[in-house]
Design a protein that fits this description.
The protein is α/β, with parallel strands linked by helices. It has eleven helices and 16 strands. The longest helix is centred in the middle third of the chain and has 14 residues. Bound molecules: NADP nicotinamide-adenine-dinucleotide phosphate.
């Protein structure tokens, strides 16, 4: 009977009757990461969820995100702590009219299977709001973690507000085949820029040039970076979208034009390092070329969140934005997925399909 009716029906009946029945599974971090994250740093535990109050929804995760910030941020939490992260989840019971059953939300619920929250309340500081996914069929709802979610908005606002890229300018992107980088390159092409990417394999570079329309892409593991820049950016570089940091960023910033703009988005090249690497001094390039270098967190545009999502949705519908996903499977494989993404297994966005 239960199987025939489906989980949603069962959850609604129990929740309307006020009987708490749903048991959530969640990852708790017990040990700070050293080097790559390990399964033994975590424990999966179960908790029984309480009864829905007015305004609350119960969700069931369908896709969980693995993102580089997870490796970098956990040191800021007191242990043990619930693992942070975004997810796309289905609303399976609701006492909030704006968030009806059957719809999908993107939320910062962490690595857990089921969640109760009031999506109408403002998010905790540093977290993103819980948002209803627009109708994106025939595309998968997992795009709410990628081009139509946090990485998509990072690309949109980082490029438009920080780089302020203009038609005819040359932009260089590191981490170019990942979720943010591959998206930045496509928006920059749509603006009319020359786009040069650096990524970690020949296959990724071929994907960037042939599928996404990058003008040039180079394998940073095998290329001479200076020669690659001369070859790929004959008019030098106006904008640099920095996803990786380290020596490659110094080399690129030394190859920029006067008044170039650098969007410092992340520094994944050192996230797994306990001791931060030393790189060649950057100040001469910044001073003599009068560069504008600005770090940013995408949360800066939390009040304009929908603007970014809608702009990316428009590009998707116009056929100007392609996407690729590396899909891992199973709630038990979250750590493998996180490590795989940090090692560069993904082209495009890395996500985990929960079931
Ligand atoms: N500021 C913000 O608000 C914000 C928001 C989202 C993301 N970010 C940052 O943006 C960057 C990209 O994030 P994402 O979500 O799009 O991840 P991603 O690029 O989809 O995945 C991470 C990629 O990093 C690359 N990588 C790993 N080790 C590297 C190394 N030593 N040197 C160069 N590249 C390396 C790998 O690709 P390869 O095969 O090419 O090495 C891997 O696929 C990260 O630094 C992240 O922290 C910042």
């Amino acid at each position: 009977m239960a199987k025939a009716l489906g989980f949603t029906y069962i959850a609604n009946r129990f929740y309307s009757a006020g009987v708490p029945k749903v048991r959530a599974q969640k990852y708790v971090l017990n040990k700070y990461f050293q080097g790559e994250p390990k399964k033994s740093d975590f424990q999966i535990i179960e908790e029984e969820l309480s009864v829905l109050k007015d305004g609350e929804i119960l969700t069931e995760a369908e896709f969980l995100s693995v993102d580089p910030y997870m490796r970098a941020y956990m040191i800021g939490y007191k242990l043990p702590t619930d693992m942070i992260g975004g997810q796309v989840a289905k609303i399976i019971a609701s006492r909030n009219k704006k968030f009806p059953e059957g719809k999908y939300v993107a939320g910062s619920f962490g690595w857990r299977t089921h969640t109760i929250c009031n999506p109408s309340l403002p998010p905790k500081i540093g977290f993103l709001p819980t948002t209803l996914l627009p109708d994106i069929s025939p595309h998968p709802v997992s795009l709410g973690l990628g081009i139509l979610g946090m990485p998509g908005n990072t690309a949109h606002f980082g490029l438009k507000e920080i780089c302020q890229a203009k038609p005819g300018e040359t932009i260089v992107i590191t981490g170019a085949a990942g979720a943010v980088g591959s998206h930045v390159g496509q928006i920059a092409k749509a603006i009319g820029c020359r786009v040069v990417g650096f990524a970690g394999s020949d296959e990724k570079c071929e994907y960037l040039e042939k599928d996404l329309g990058f003008d040039r892409a180079f394998n940073y593991k095998t290329a001479n970076i200076k020669l690659a820049l001369k070859d790929g950016a004959p008019k030098r570089v106006d904008c640099y979208f920095d996803n990786v940091g380290g020596e490659i960023s110094t080399t690129i910033m030394n190859f920029m034009n006067y008044y170039g703009r650098v969007a410092v988005c992340g520094s994944i090249s050192s996230y797994n390092d306990d001791k931060l690497p030393k790189v060649t001094i950057l100040q001469p390039a910044i001073v003599f070329k009068e560069l504008k270098v600005e770090g940013f967190l995408v949360n800066r545009w939390i009040d304009r969140w929908d603007e970014g999502i809608n702009a990316n949705l428009k590009l998707l519908r116009e056929g100007k934005l392609k996407y690729n996903e590396k899909i891992y499977h199973g709630f038990d494989n979250m750590v493998d997925a996180l490590v795989g993404m940090l090692r560069g297994e993904n082209t495009g966005k890395a996500v985990v399909k929960v079931k």
